[in-house]
Amino acid sequence: MNILAENTDIIFPGLGIHLKNVGSFFHVFGIDIAYYGVCIALGMLAGYLLAAWQAKRTGQDPEFYLDFTIYAIVFAVVGARLYYVLFRWDMFKDDPASIINLRTGGLAIYGGILGGILTAVIFTRLKKYPFWKLADIGGIGLLTGQIIGRWGNFFNREAFGSYAKGPFRMLVNVKDTSWYFDPSTSLEALKTEYAGKTTALNRILEIRNNAVTRGGETYVSVHPTFLYEGIGNLIILLFILWYTKKQKKDGELWFIYLGGYGLVRFFVEGMRSDQLFLWGTGIAVSQLLAVVMMLVSVVMFIYIRKNGADAAYAVYHAASRTKETASAKSDNNDNKDEEVSSGGKTAE
Asked: Which of 115, 162, 210, 337 could pair covalently with 75 via S-S, beta carbons 3.0-4.6 A apart?
């Protein structure tokens, strides 16, 4: 979480893009509205709308998913915040009240996923609804929300990657970054903060040592990992929407999402400069979970494919085809009756 200098530039020199005076919030009737929160809210709205469309596409009731979405959003946000606080407790232990301040960032998607899953388990049991059927739709909504919500990291100048010098590098004003990227921060302070985390320390030092100066301002040159993750998630989403017509069992779409996101996150997390670590270790918890997600998804996809319930899309369209066939037969019989009643001639 960063205390941002208001209205600084963000530059993509390799792409010829120079965004001037980019703020992290705007004012409405004297109230500061963070772009981070706006991105999260838009992601939630778009996630529900696409999920509702998918539900209708597969013969399910969109209103049922609206009820679920309301509960899922609340508990997903709670889970995302608690997960972040759990692995960054040193940032909150002296000011516990700051835990409820979400405007400056600090949500971890894995916590949001866990919160959403727990909500889905309870909701489907209470409603006596197939869990995997809901999970397939919920995964699409969640993925859509992630694609849009990640842009909140752009406005907050956070969750970026290691030093970059390629065409997609992003220059961020050092005043808008965490304290450890500031060249004035002592090396000893960094070594203390990252004791036992050599890879992370070297990554931060590389960013600091390659800072550049433009127009009297100092910038760090980094990978825009929020953009990489967003593009990766968009590819997964498009694949899932295409695969729906080929789906045979409920749960397949959920595990495509879970495994696909695990793959994307594993590589993106390897570039991140603000990783969350397992307590007292240099192990990036998000990469570890990404590997677990991929392995579980492959095993469960194979299992469900062989043993799961028929998919909503397949059932819905099989029923539709049955109705169409029955209707066609009924029309044909009506025509025959008309021919008989008119002496074998078509009635006029």
From this structure: 115
